[in-house]
Amino acid sequence: MTSPETAGGEKMQELQRQINSVMKTINNNSKVTAFMNSPVGQYLDERPFLSLSLLVFIALSAVPVGLFLTVIVGTAVTACLGVIILEGIVIAVCGVVLLCTLCGIVILSFGVSGVLSVCYVAISSIINYMHTSRLLSRTINLTHSDPQDGDSLTGRKVSKDSTHID
């Protein structure tokens, strides 16, 4: 029977293999390679927080921009019917609303990026701590496994008072 720690480790390794496979597929795409070799791609590659903020901003602004374009098409149809003044007013009001919405989304995207960055640092620190403590416990178990044969890590004989005998 496998321990929960071993099963969890195997699941993490499988998840890591799947993520690496997806990353290789994305990185081998010719359009991604061309973008990453461009000056903008290199700039964003050097600034991951800005890249994450830009990605969150684009994702969050898709709906308001889509609604704005829908209103523009609707007012253009209305303008074709002869209501030009109404179109100008609606476009101006919608433009101001879109500007305010996008400014709010910029602030929100920086906040979300900050939270995601903190979560990444915290989770990676926790995983690193767990991995280090597991290696340390294995090292201690190997050291104390058979004291008559010697230290299994260095290959030296160890006496009962823990001094090395060569």
Automatic annotation (TrEMBL):
<dbReference type="InterPro" id="IPR029709">
    <property type="entry name" value="LDAF1"/>
</dbReference>
<dbReference type="Pfam" id="PF16015">
    <property type="entry name" value="Promethin"/>
</dbReference>
<keyword id="KW-1133">Transmembrane helix</keyword>
<dbReference type="GO" id="GO:0005811">
    <property type="term" value="C:lipid droplet"/>
</dbReference>
<keyword id="KW-0472">Membrane</keyword>
<feature type="transmembrane region" description="Helical">
    <location>
        <begin position="49"/>
        <end position="69"/>
    </location>
</feature>
<feature type="transmembrane region" description="Helical">
    <location>
        <begin position="105"/>
        <end position="129"/>
    </location>
</feature>
<feature type="region of interest" description="Disordered">
    <location>
        <begin position="147"/>
        <end position="166"/>
    </location>
</feature>
<comment type="similarity">
    <text>Belongs to the LDAF1 family.</text>
</comment>
<dbReference type="GO" id="GO:0005789">
    <property type="term" value="C:endoplasmic reticulum membrane"/>
</dbReference>
<feature type="transmembrane region" description="Helical">
    <location>
        <begin position="76"/>
        <end position="99"/>
    </location>
</feature>
<keyword id="KW-0256">Endoplasmic reticulum</keyword>
<protein>
    <recommendedName>
        <fullName>Promethin</fullName>
    </recommendedName>
</protein>
<keyword id="KW-0812">Transmembrane</keyword>
<keyword id="KW-0551">Lipid droplet</keyword>
